[in-house]
Amino acid sequence: MSTHRKIDLICVVVIVLATLLTIVFMNGEKLGVTVVVDEDQEYHSDSAYFTANDQTADWDTSGATVITLNGDSVSISGNGAYAYDGGVVIRNGGAYILSGELTDGSICVNAYDSSKVWLLFDGVSVTCSDDASFRIDQADKVFLTLADGSENSLASGESYTQEALDDGTDGAIFAHDDLTINGSGSLTVTAAYQHGIVANDDLVITGGKLTVTAPADGIRANDSLRVKDAEISATSGDDGIVVDEAEGYFYAESGTIAVRADDDGIHSAGSAIIAGGEFTINAGDDGIHADGAVTISGGTVTIPQCNEGIEGAAIDVTGGDLTIYPSDDGINANGAVSGTGGISAAETAQTESAEAYLRISGGSVTIINESGRDADGLDSNGNLYIDGGTVRISLNGDGSNSALDYASESGGVCEITGGTVIACGGSSMAEQFSATSTQGSALYTIASAAQAGTELTVTDGSSVLLSWDVPCSFTSAVVSCPQMVLNGTYRITAGSESAEFTLSEISQAVGEAAGGMQRGFGGMGDAQTGLDEMQRGQPFADSETSGSSERPTPPNGESFTPPDGEQMTPPDGEQMTPPDGEQMTPPDGEQMTPPDGEQMTPPTDGAQVEEETAAETQSEEGLFTSVTSETLVFSGIAVLLLIAAILFAVKFKKY
After folding, report:
1. CA count, 13 A, side-chain hemisphere, 160
2. Distance of CA 496 to the CA centre of its chain
3. Do 269 and 339 meet the contact criterion of CB atoms below 8 Å apart?
4. Are strands 151-156 and 116-128 parallel, antiparallel or unpaired?
5. Most CB contacts within 10 A, which of 100, 243, 443, 520?
6. pLDDT tens digit sequence for 552-591
7. Bridge partners of 158?
8. Rounded to 5°, angle at Cα 142 from 269 and 98
9. Burial of 241: CB neighbours in 10 Å, binned 0-12, 13-18, 19+
10. From the centroid of its chain, how far is CA 535?
């Protein structure tokens, strides 16, 4: 067979048409084509940290497999699970309801690695003497829902089998994959060996009352630990709450968390982010520790007992209410950032721009250290910034401490541009704000120590600008507020001691040491820097007062009664699939109906299982590409190009 004499031209035209067709589809999204979404991914709803299914405890249980625990045996109505070795194994994705007691057994999920499993605990009590009482060997994700009003408990023994140890099992709850706990019931986890709850991937807690007791760590996750709308109480012989991965993070936006730990209260090898919630932390070491960045933007954090209150490589406080009673530093920014997990790109860039810094730009910070003699209030190994918020610091006046401490010896700065500050402590190591500040401040030093409870006030002759009954004795105080402007005249009073001064410098020394050398004037540069803004003579604000210095009382362990639950509804669009292609059959032979009435389909080749989707993101037409006018136009162009190429090739075909 001979070759057509115009074969080169034919090939060129076909290649050009094929290229144009490829370009159309490569740019389909820009041209109006909606991309088909991978059903295997998790959908987020109103939060970047929680999916819709994380927050949905009201899934439909009408077609679920029912598992009843009977001491040393198990009865099962439905498919997808089987009894094994005095416990139960859940072999397939789908919905399961569990109730009853196992005296020495376990609940195990060992499904396909793409399976999503929903478990409803409705009065479950499981004790396992030599392994985790609840474990996840394999699944894509497991949702453990605590039924409304239910009381559930999981406990483990003091030693585990060699098989469990070889598997790395070290918790009363142990998950190799992602685990979400939600609902409105309660769960008590008691570990006699190692940790309470362990997840090797992500652990999400969005509801329920959890009480965890463990000889080592209370709650431990590898990649991330995220909390919302839950009540958590953890008592541990080591750290209370832990995130292991350097790129991981701890995140909380609401709920109540009480920790009593022999070591750190909350410890993250990556970052720690608190956007809300109520925390009460009693710790043998740090209250909150992150090897990376710490960001606090909301919530209430009370740390009645700790060595250092909050420690991280870089620390940002933009909101919230912090009250800390440390024996060492109150808040310490200590070094280079090693992890920024869970933080946005903009926040990461800001965090990595300086190796160590402490910035307070909002919220309220109160630090009271009655006993630490060589301890600081705010301590940064780099720069210290106060841009807003309210800061109250009281350290023992007899010690060689500093209410404000930063790297002045290596060129660091301590700048204030907004907010109100009363920072009291000893005078021998006292530091003041840098001359690069834009808000006026004074370091007041007195000859003899003011006793604990002494009222410190700053007035402008007619109004009280600052006032606080300082809890500890002190010999120095750093004060600042927006009303302190250049050339203004003020009086500072501490009990029977007082001094009147005119603010002639942006950061001024007042009192006994006013004529001598003052620490903390690092980064002076041009002393006029920022002074123009000080000439504004801002109007005086209302007098400020602070709350009582009385030490807060941590939670007393009173029982929690969850709110009345709502009807449980399974996640929309989730297909429940039995193992080995068998049809799942509920009691009495009735046909099981998945959410939204869709037909349940067995897996294909043992691999296709239900996938999690968020119903609110799906249209009535399903999960496929939505068609717009632009889509039709460019699809038509693509088809015409393809037809043209075929016709051209046929015309010049040589038989």
Report:
1. 24
2. 47
3. yes
4. parallel
5. 243
6. 444 344 333 333 443 334 334 444 343 343 433 333 433 3
7. none
8. 130
9. buried
10. 42
